[in-house]
Amino acid sequence: MPVEVASYEAIYDEHFNFVWRNARRLGVPEASVDDVVQDVFLVVHRKLSQFEGRSSLHTWLYGILVRVVRDHRRSQARRTAKAIAVAAEPEEPEPTPLDLLAKREAARVLEGLLDELDEEKREVFVLVELEQLSVADVATALGLNVNTAHARLRAARSAFESASARFRAKEKL
Amino acid sequence: MDPIARELVDRARDAHDPSVLDRERVRRKVAAELAATALAGAATTKIGLSSWSSSWSSSWSVVKVLAPFLAVGAVATWFVLRAPTTQPAPRIVSTTTPLMDTTHPIPVPIVAAAPTTDVQLAMSVDKPNPAPTTIHSAKSQVVVAPASDIEAETRLITDAQTAIQRGDFTSALSKLDEHERAFPAGALTQERIAARVVALCGARRQAEAKTLAKTFLQQYPNSPLAPRVQGACATP
Question: In the listed set A43, A58, A90, which residue is the last one of a domain according to the structure?
Answer without folding.
Answer: A90
